[in-house]
Every structure is written in C-alpha cells, then in structure tokens.
Input
Amino acid sequence: MTETTSAQTTAPTAATEPPPTVWPTLSATNARALIDFLVTAFGFQEIVAHADGGVIQHAELAWPEGGGVMLGQDRNDPEHVWKMPPGSFGAYVVTSTPDAIHDRAVAAGAEIVVALVDTDYGARNFAARDPEGNLWSFGTYRGHPY
Output
C-alpha cells in the first residue's frame, strides 16, 4: 500500500480494544461510496479505511451496539483468494432502535425491502438493500440465549 487514510480520530488502546467477535466481510464496486452510504443510512461508524492509489483496500465499520463489518474494493482479480462478488452480501444487525434506523435509512434513500414489522417471536425488524445490492436486516432479536 502506498497511501493510508483513516477516519479514526484516536488510535485504539488496550482500554478501548473491542472484545473478540465476528466481522463479516464484503467487497464493493465502489467501496468509498458504499462506506459513505452505510454510515449515512444505517449509522455504521467508519473506523479506518486504507487506500492504495485512491482505491479502498481495507475498511472497518463498527456497529455502535457491537461488532462491525470489513470491506474493500472489488479487485477483479481471479487469483485473489477472498473473491466475493459485490452485492452478494447479507447481514442481520441487532439493534435496540430499529425504528430510528429505519427512519434514518429512508431519509438517506435506502431501498426498504421489508417494512418495519413486529414478529410473532417478539422482535421488531426491517430490511433494506444498499446501492450495491447487499441486503441488511435490522432488528431487536438478539439470538437464542446460550
């Protein structure tokens, strides 16, 4: 990499280092535009975006309630081992504020593919598609206790 950019204003420290968790990954046709959309429409927080020649190679977006996603520009390289077609990603994101995120997503022009609904299992959810075609479901269901 020849160029590094970062949206992070403070370097992580041991005190702020997040706990181990799962970080789903996706690739994007226009990583910079997708990052901006995910931040504006859904409320992800851009932690870091490393670019090489203006192309986002690796970015991390934190979910304010825990976890996050990693993404980068599609490399159009058949030899790349982490080949994932842009627009083929889907995620369920746990939130305690689905109504607020829904309203934010609508205001940002997100395509709502499942309207806000109260499920028969006690959750409140909605789903949206980002500009690259990825599907994002936001809801209050936190998974089965274990």
Q: What stands out?
A: The beta strands are 25-28, 45-52, 55-62, 68-73, 90-94, 111-118, 124-129, 135-139. Residues 27 and 82 are 9 Å apart (CA to CA). The first strand starts at residue 25 and ends at 28.
